[in-house]
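Example 9 (inverse folding). The structure is encoded as follows.
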């Protein structure tokens, strides 16, 4: 809206509504870009730091790590980190630990939590910036 624009009192509600809609679309676009970047970075970090047994699974587990974009009912995108089949069941065991065939216990590797702890503060900061800047 231009600073020189004159708005009649009876049209002020429509003008405010129009500006809020433009602001909302701008923020949604910026937040979506932040989320896409964070999801891509989460996949990269988890692929780099995930533990795997070269003897049994090779790098196959690491190659199954991915993310996907989904649309929700309200039009906002959701990004999901996941592990493709057939390795998806292995993730729980790698993160939480499990008994080994030789009687020992694998304690688990918090690679996913560590990656999230690294990504989330930057993502939150970028979202705050997007909301503050608006247009």
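The amino acid assigned to each position is listed next.
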């Amino acid at each position: 809206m231009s600073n020189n624009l004159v708005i009649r009192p009876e049209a002020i509600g429509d003008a405010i509504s129009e500006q809020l809609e433009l602001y909302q679309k701008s923020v949604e676009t910026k937040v979506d870009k932040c989320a896409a970047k964070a999801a891509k970075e989460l996949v990269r970090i988890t692929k780099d730091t995930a533990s795997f047994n070269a003897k049994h699974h090779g790098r196959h587990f690491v190659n199954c790590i991915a993310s996907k974009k989904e649309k929700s009912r309200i039009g906002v995108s959701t990004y999901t980190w996941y592990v493709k089949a057939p390795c998806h069941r292995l993730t729980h065991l790698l993160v939480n630990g499990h008994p080994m065939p030789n009687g020992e216990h694998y304690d688990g590797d918090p690679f996913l939590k560590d990656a999230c702890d690294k990504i989330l503060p930057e993502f939150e900061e970028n979202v705050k910036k997007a909301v503050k800047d608006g247009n």
